[in-house]
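Q: C-alpha cells for this one, please.
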Amino acid sequence: MPFLDLIQRIKHEIAKFGAVGLAAYVIDVGIFNFLRFHDGQGPLFDKPLTAKVISASVATTFAYFANRHWTFSHRQKTTFKREYALFFLLNAIGMGISLLCLWLTHYVLNFTSPLADNLSANGVGLILGTVFRFWSYRKWVFLEHSDHAIVGD
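A: Here is the predicted structure, written as C-alpha cells:
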C-alpha cells in the first residue's frame, strides 16, 4: 500500500509537525480567546476575524521557526526570505480555511457563542488547515535535498 509506506517513511516528520502544531495551537487559541473573551468581553470581543488573524499570525511565527529548526531540520535549507515568505503565504491559505469556517458559522449560520466560534475556527478549520499546511510545507517550503540547493540566509 503506497499510502501506508509514505506514512511509515515520514512518521517522524508527522510526529514533530504535530508537536509543533499543538504548541502553536495553544498559542493561537490562547491569544484568540484572550482577545475575544478576557474578563467577559476582551479587547476584540466584537471582532472575531481580527482576533483570529492576530492569534494565527503569532502562532505562525512560532511554527515557522520550530518547523525549520526541528521538524524539517534535515531538509534542504534555502534562503530565509524564500522560506519565510512561502511559509506565510501557505499559512495565509491555511488561515483562510479557518476563517472561512468561522465566517460561515458566525455570520451565515449565526452561531455566535464562544463554543461555536471555537469549534468552527479552532476545530474544523484547524483540522482542514493542518492537512493543507503539512502537505504544502513538504512540497514548497522545506524541500528535499537536491544537487541544486540554494544555500544561504
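A few notes: The helical segments are 2-9, 11-37, 48-71, 80-108, 114-141. The chain has one domain: 2-141.
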